[in-house]
Amino acid sequence: MDMYEIIRRKRDGAELTDEEIRAFIRGYTDGRIPDYQAAAFCMAVFFRDMTDRETAVLTEAMADSGDRLDLSGFGRMTADKHSTGGVGDKTSLIVIPAAASLGCVTAKMSGRGLGHTGGTVDKLESIPGYRTSLSPEAFLDQVRRVGIAVIGQTGNLTPADKKLYALRDVTATVDSIPLIASSIMSKKLAAGAANIVLDVKAGSGSFMKTLDRAALLADKMVRIGTAAGRNVTAVITDMDVPLGTHIGNALEVREAVAVLRDGLRNDLYEVSVCLTAHLAGMTLGIPFGEAERRVKEAIASGLAYRKMLEWIGAQGGDISCIEDLSKLPKGRYAARVKSPADGYILKMDAETVGRTSLHLGAGRATKEDVIDPGAGIVLRRKTGDRVREGETLCTLYTDRKSALGPAKELFLSALTFGAEKPEPRPLVCRVISTAR
Ligand code: URA
Question: CA triplet 424, 221, 20: central angle to 5 degrees?
Answer without folding.
Answer: 145
